[in-house]
């Protein structure tokens, strides 16, 4: 009987722990690890916005697209647009927040992320957007993992 009670308490505790943090269950584990190795030229008219500090753009690649942000002179941030909060939803995609161009906001959970590093600014998410590495050489920007 004592063993059954201990097993029951353990089972309840396991359920409570696994359900208390949705991000850990659905976050990066459900975002495909897609190889990324993209080169763009920031002086290309298509990417003119990226030549200006504070400029941003969307690229195809990654799991659901990549958001590129020109953070400061010769510093770019590349973030996966696939929101980690509930990554199983097909519309969990972060877009630039039109009311504040230093934030991205998820279409489904409304979590907001800081473009400088992908960290959570507000909302139910507690995992940052996945960040890709960047390297700038002259006007050529490389985004890779």
Task: Give a brief description.
The protein has 145 residues and is α+β, with helices and mostly antiparallel strands.
Describe what this molecule looks like in 3D.
With 145 residues, this protein is α+β, with helices and mostly antiparallel strands. A hairpin with a 5-residue loop joins strand 6 (103-106) and strand 7 (112-114). The chain has 2 helices and 10 strands. The chain has a 6-stranded antiparallel sheet with strand order 1-10-9-4-3-2, with no helix packed on it. 30% of the residues are buried. The chain has a single domain (22-144), classed as 3-layer Sandwich (Rieske Iron-sulfur Protein), CATH 2.102.10.
**The top level CATH class name:** Mainly Beta
Order of helices and strands: HHEEEEEEEEEE
CATH architecture: 3-layer Sandwich
Report the average pLDDT across residues. Answer: 85
Output the number of helix runs.
2
Parts with pLDDT < 50 across at least 5 consecutive residues: 3-26
Biggest sheet architecture: 6 strands, antiparallel
For the termini, the CA-CA separation is: 53 Å
Oligomer: single chain
């Amino acid at each position: 009987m004592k063993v059954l009670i201990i097993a029951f308490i353990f089972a309840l505790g396991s359920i409570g722990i696994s359900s208390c943090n949705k991000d850990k269950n659905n976050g990066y584990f459900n975002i495909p690890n897609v190889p990324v190795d993209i080169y763009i030229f920031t002086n290309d008219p298509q990417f003119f916005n990226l030549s200006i500090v504070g400029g941003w753009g969307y690229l195809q690649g990654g799991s659901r697209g990549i958001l590129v942000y020109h953070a400061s002179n010769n510093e770019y941030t590349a973030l996966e647009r696939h929101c980690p909060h509930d990554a199983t939803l097909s519309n969990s995609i972060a877009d630039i927040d039109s009311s504040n161009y230093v934030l991205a906001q998820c279409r489904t959970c409304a979590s907001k992320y800081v473009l400088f590093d992908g960290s959570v600014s507000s909302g139910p998410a507690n995992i940052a957007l996945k960040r890709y590495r960047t390297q700038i050489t002259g006007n050529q920007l490389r985004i890779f993992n």
